[in-house]
Amino acid sequence: MTAVPVIAIDGPSASGKGTVAQLVAEKLGFHYLDSGALYRLVALAAMRAGVPLDGDERLASVAASLEARFEAGEPVTGAIRDEACSIGASKVAAWPGVRSALLGRQRAFRRSPGLVAEGRDMGSVVFPDSGLKVFLTATVEARAERRYKQLKGKGITATLSILLQDLRERDARDAARSVAPLKQCPDARFLDTTAMSATEAAQRILAWYRGGE
Ligand code: C5P
Question: What is the SS3 assignment for 81-123?
């Protein structure tokens, strides 16, 4: 039996990997996993329950009981995208108990005909046997600019210099943690999207997947 194919797209915050991964998934008719959303949900659930983000054990049980809290249908798609949740997610993601509690849940997304998974450790930890691994990035300035435009488009006021500082801090926290730090896998293709649109980036990945250059 052949394994269900996975395309793993990892990279730093606001690199555009979400948009690109969704475009690739649409084109191939594959399922899509936004693994960051799970860490954001853990942060939101913990903050609401008054569980401090600086200890592993209680956070791991929050992570293990996510469905119970959110599947009842409260829409939290807006809440998990705000800056407090972004910062909270990168804090809870540093705890090994949280990461292992989310492992099975992420792997369950691997269903026929295929999966495009995006995050920080898709290629290294969650789906190490992915057929294609991509490390997608852009300069921190370009990423801050993209986030700024995205927020502005939604009518949210933001300050570019603060976004830039937040991104730098999150990059440092994601790269420095001892479990599943953000780094390029040796077998991942490097894609710098600083001067590329999301559509161009998706086309490049599709060409790699189909075996071309
Ligand atoms: O990708 P996104 O910015 O939504 O992820 C939020 C946070 O979740 C990241 O800053 C990172 O710390 C964490 N994360 C992770 N591993 C993943 C996906 C996200 O540690 N696979």
Answer: HCHHHHHHHHHHCCCHHHHHHHHHHHHCCCCCCCEEEEECCHH
